[in-house]
Design brief:
heterotrimer, A mainly alpha (322), B alpha/beta (467), C mainly alpha (304), A: 322 residues, mainly alpha, MetI-like fold, C: 304 residues, 67% helix, 0% strand
Chain lengths: 322, 467, 304
């Protein structure tokens, strides 16, 4: 395909899309009378819903069905795959790791992002400071894995051999022996989690910084005039005011954490007791061609997100009721 | 104010962004190239000599897509070696290399959009593809079968077949039973190349006594971590128990945790789990698990931090450019010595296979070309011209002189010597669930402390029931 | 009917800050401890990246043997790594760069347009099962895209779209929709109902309300999501691999860079400059749209 072909494709896409959207909005506009809302509402949401139905719901359904079958989806095996997940030792470790990830990462990322956002709010170098913490988000996961490889890398403490990883270099400077961090179970999980926190704190900071700026300044002003100290200000004014934002951030990060497997895959390949459900899903489906196990693991992910969904729905109902 | 047209604000912004992208693209378009026969490397064969290609007919305007796991820089000699074929027949070969090949190929096959040809790195994967996607993989055409019969030994032919049907001809191969060492270091210390396993152990002890670490090893390889240890075990199985028992082990006629396998693994452990022997220049025993296989042999070059590294002939490519790889140079390799003199000295080999998903005439012609001696020689020359080493072919029509690296030449001579006994890499032949998964994983766990019986039982339990 | 950027009744964030007094109070309270803490966090966050940045300029031998901090003792820099990444290989990087641009831009605009419309539908219209559907859309966020790869690919092959950019655009759009709808819906609901009512009274239908009130007011939220989506698509590898493949035809930058590590060598010295070349564009986009971030994602989600 030449460059011209590609650009043509792009223009065709734009034209087609514009035409479709135009048609949808035209339909929405025509509805009058009692059924205005119904027709308009459906018209507005239909394109997205259609794509989601075909692109996510149908595959999700297929996955659910496949999880009850064997590796090549030929034979029905009932709950066998699930039983394996909860009894096979290395898979239980995978579950444990996933829970570690999903509990630690959102809380720490949000906390650090929030604190940082508050700290740099309205200071002189705010944009630059925020860009620094946001930078890890802009680097692809592959880039992040390489970056942290140069932090955790291990070399023996022998003559003629230098440390290549920053952490071990610090240890050596302190007179300690270098440690092969990747191998130390179960702490190696925490080291990988650190990478994810490093990335997600930028997301939390960005969203929460915007939320902080949206706090009406009269409230802040009033509190200041009352002599409220900065710590109390944070807990009694800032935090409650941005609560919806915090919920959004924790939710988004939790879901991202459940799905991400690139970090684990690139840094340890899932070895040494560091695998998580998402990584195991990828491995079972694409490396071992075991569609049944892979699907069952994906279903576990779906189940893990239910509490998050429920919590969010409750929050939304609360806001609606206000 | 009249209502603006739907979404126009966004679309206006969109259009200006598109215009910007368009402008950028135009600027960059000047640098756009093609992915067919790159500019690196010179002509591998004069375009006048098309007589050898007449048999493929006129394929003008036809396209053949090739999907492989071979990426830059090793892909360049491949792409270059296709040029004479393209020039003489008029066909166009579109080469695509990806490190995600092994995960992506089954997806593409299942979804119905396979490439025309794929270079399969393990027979186990071929087996899986054939059994899970009946009809998708096309059996090798007659021309290819004829070439395989004529130019390749039985070991390779059966590895490229599933249930007796030949699907793929070997592409590039490798000889695995080598131990890399530094002739200069050996010379300086007065060591000689061991001829038997016992001599090798004695040499290791001597090195330890003189204050060095004899062995270095590394099995890190991302998803595939652990595979070098499988080669170790296979080599020892062959040397301790001979080819017949090896075949039984690979085909699951004997269980994976058979006492002979355990004994072989323990013998490997006597070297690799021995803290006095490993891990030269890289750390302790467990560092074997975290050192990448590419880095593992490099301490040989660094002030005698390590003396011996067991690895296939393709390892030559990992030494820095300019390293003197020769019999008296900085680095060379000797054959892993025999253990039991009663067993024939068997060479462990591996190979990639050319497998087709289409039976269009141009695809079959290209397949035939790849299985011919012409191609092997073209590829060897192309690689040598680019200064690459570590690639060989088992095609008996290959002239070793076309290869630049003495280890490669020596390996080809070994492959072409019919009096040698060969066996194909076991983990590559085993079902994918074992050979590309639990075997690797088990070996990694083993080196980081799991016991031999536990490891072998784990692998044995994972063997698919149907096989 | 006029269009206002800042609806009456809310303070435009960042504007109209009462000067001097609260600012002075703020400065007093923002003690040097806070600055120090912020500095520590910023430094900690940047050191790893800075390490890689230095590494990208170091010669191959150095990278394998010594840590990047030794640079300060032995400065030895080279542009060779960047040269090799940019100009080496048979397929020039610029071709992949073009593909990245062509892949990313529609993959950002399409989901945003669709999600904004859908968010409006969920927020400001009423139809049966509306809330259930919204929860379902929200829940779909969890579906890992790997689950959808094979089914989508089958559909694409069936319709003959395979091998074009269409597949990547549609795939990226689908995967972005749940989160986009969720975030935009949150933002949209906080637009004061009075505005909408006023427009209704004027006789505006849903479409007019959408285009003249909603979209302008949603600019910050849309821009914020656009940045995230841009980042995600630009840095994506898996979707590109599955739906685009690796040939110069449609493969983006990430595919090329992932292959850089080579078969035999763990070419960190090439991956380092590769990572930074890839990061330039997202960084520019981020910095360029920074001003929208100030008024960010949840402007107005705070009620007094």
């Amino acid at each position: 395909m030449t460059l011209l072909d590609k650009l043509l494709q792009l223009l065709v896409a734009v034209a087609v899309f514009a035409a479709v959207m135009g048609a949808v909005l035209f339909v929405a506009d025509r509805a009058r009378g009692r059924r205005t809302d119904l027709v308009s509402g459906l018209a507005f949401t239909a394109p997205a819903l259609l794509l989601l139905l075909v692109g996510l719901l149908y595959p999700a359904g297929r996955t659910a069905v496949q999880s009850f079958f064997d590796a090549s989806s030929a034979g029905f095996v009932g709950l066998d795959n699930y039983v394996r997940i909860f009894t096979q030792p290395d898979l239980v470790v995978v579950l444990r790791n996933t829970l570690l990830w999903v509990v630690i990462t959102p809380i720490l990322s949000t906390a650090i992002g929030l604190v940082y956002a508050v700290l740099v709010d309205r200071t002189r170098f705010e944009s630059f400071a925020k860009a620094l913490v946001f930078l890890p988000m802009a680097i692809s996961f592959v880039g992040a894995a390489i970056i942290w490889k140069f932090v955790y890398e291990y070399r023996p403490n022998q003559q003629n051999i230098q440390q290549v990883g920053l952490l071990n270099q610090v240890l050596v400077w302190l007179g300690l022996e270098p440690v092969n961090f990747i191998l130390v179970e179960p702490w190696n999980n925490l080291l990988l989690i650190v990478v994810m926190i490093w990335i997600q704190a930028g997301f939390a900071m960005t969203v929460l910084s915007a939320a902080i700026k949206a706090i009406p300044s009269d409230i802040v002003e009033a509190a200041r005039l009352d002599g409220v100290g900065s710590v109390r200000m944070f807990f009694s004014i800032t935090l409650p005011s941005i609560r919806p934002a915090v919920v959004v951030v924790i939710t988004a990060i939790s879901i991202a954490v459940l799905k991400v497997f690139d970090i684990v895959r690139t840094m340890t390949g899932g070895q040494f007791g560091t695998s998580v459900v998402a990584n195991e899903f990828y491995r079972q489906t694409f490396r071992l061609s075991d569609l049944g196990m892979g699907s069952a693991l994906a279903m576990i992910l779906f189940v893990l997100v239910v509490p998050i969904v429920v919590y969010n729905v409750r929050q939304m109902r609360k806001v609606d009721a206000r | 104010m009249p209502a603006p047209k739907s979404g126009s604000t966004l679309r206006r912004r969109g259009t200006s962004a598109l215009a910007a992208a368009f402008g950028v693209s135009l600027v960059l378009a000047g640098c756009a190239g093609s992915n067919v026969a790159g500019d690196g490397g010179s002509d591998a064969a004069g375009s006048e000599d098309c007589a050898a290609f007449a048999q493929y007919g006129d394929l003008s305007g036809k396209r053949v897509t090739v999907y492989t796991s071979i990426v830059a820089p090793e892909d360049q000699p491949h792409i270059d070696s296709y040029r004479p074929f393209e020039e003489c027949t008029g066909a166009q070969i579109v080469y695509e290399g990806s490190k995600e090949f092994e995960a992506q190929l089954p997806v593409r096959v299942q979804a119905g959009s396979p490439p025309d040809i794929a270079y399969i790195p393990q027979p186990g994967l071929l087996n899986t593809l054939v059994t899970q996607n009946p009809g998708a993989v096309k059996p090798a055409p007659q021309t290819v079968a004829a070439n395989v019969d004529q130019y390749f030994s039985e070991t390779f032919k059966s590895a490229g077949s599933v249930d007796g049907t030949l699907y793929g001809a070997p592409l590039g191969s490798n000889v695995k039973s080598y131990v890399w060492y530094s002739p200069q270091a050996f010379e300086a210390k007065g060591y000689t190349v061991p001829q038997t396993w016992d001599e090798m152990i004695a040499l290791s002890d001597r090195i330890v006594a003189e204050g060095g670490k004899p062995w270095c090893a590394g099995i890190g390889s991302g998803d595939a971590t652990g595979w070098p240890l499988t080669d170790w075990l296979e080599d020892v199985m062959l040397r301790e128990n001979g080819p017949e028992v090896y075949d039984q082990w690979v085909s699951h006629a004997i269980p994976f945790d058979d006492p002979r396998v355990a004994a072989a693994l323990d013998r490997v452990g006597s070297i690799l789990k021995n803290p006095a022997y490993v891990n030269g220049g890289l750390g302790d025993v467990s560092s074997i698990a975290t050192t990448t296989f590419q880095d593992a042999g490099l301490p040989i070059l660094r002030d005698q931090q390590c003396y011996m590294h067991r690895q296939a002939n393709f390892y030559a490519a990992n030494f820095p450019e300019g390293t003197d790889i020769s019999e008296n140079g900085e680095v060379f390799a000797f054959e892993l010595p025999p253990i039991d003199p009663a067993q024939p000295q068997t060479i462990l080999v591996g190979s990639e296979f050319v497998v087709a998903f289409s039976d269009r005439p141009e695809v079959q012609a290209f397949q035939a070309f790849l299985s011919s001696p012409e191609w092997s020689n073209l590829k060897a020359k192309a690689g040598s011209e680019l200064g690459q080493s570590g690639w060989i072919s088992a095609n008996t029509g290959l002239d070793p002189a076309n290869l630049s690296n003495p280890i490669d030449r020596q390996s080809v001579e070994i492959l072409q010597d019919e009096s040698n006994t060969f066996r194909f890499d076991g983990s590559d032949l085993m079902p994918a669930a074992v050979g590309s998964a639990t075997f690797w994983r088990g070996m990694t766990d083993w080196i980081t402390g799991q016991s031999t019986p536990d490891t072998l039982t784990f692998i044995e339990q994972s063997w698919p029931a149907s096989q | 009917m006029t269009v206002v950027d800042n609806p009456p009744g809310t303070t435009a964030p960042g504007f109209a800050d009462p000067p001097s007094r609260s600012a002075a109070a703020k400065k007093r309270l923002t003690s040097s401890w806070a600055s120090l803490a912020a500095l520590v966090i910023a430094v900690l966050w940047t050191i790893p990246t800075f390490g890689l940045f230095l590494t990208s300029f170091r010669p191959e031998r150095d990278v394998q043997r010594t840590g990047w901090w030794t640079f300060f003792a032995n400065p030895d820099l080279t542009l060779a790594n960047y040269g090799e990444v940019l100009f080496g290989g048979s397929q020039p990087l610029s071709g992949f760069f073009v593909n990245s641009v062509l892949v990313t831009i529609p993959s950002v605009f399409i989901p945003i347009i669709l999600a904004t419309m859908a968010a409006y539908g969920f927020a400001w219209t009423r139809f049966p099962l509306r809330d259930t559907l919204f929860v379902a859309v929200f829940a779909l966020q969890i579906v890992p895209l790997q689950v959808a790869l094979l089914p989508l690919l089958e559909i694409f092959v069936g319709t003959g779209l395979n091998g074009t950019f269409w597949t990547v655009w549609i795939a990226h759009s689908i995967f972005a929709l749940p989160l986009a709808i969720f975030l935009l819906h949150n933002s949209m609901r906080d637009i004061p109902a009075e505005l909408v009512e006023a427009a209704r009274v004027d006789g505006a239908g849903h479409v007019r309300i959408f285009t003249t009130i909603m979209v302008p007011l949603m600019k910050p939220a849309i821009a914020a999501f656009a940045v995230f989506q841009f980042l995600w698509v630009w840095n994506d590898l898996l979707v590109a691999l599955v739906f685009a493949g690796g040939t110069l035809d449609v493969a983006p930058l990430t595919v090329r860079l992932a292959n850089l590590a080579g078969n035999r060598g763990s070419n960190w010295y090439l991956l380092a400059p590769g990572a930074f070349i890839a990061i330039i564009v997202p960084l520019v986009v981020f910095l360029g749209l920074q001003r929208y971030f100030v008024r960010g994602l949840l402007a107005g989600s705070v009620k007094g």
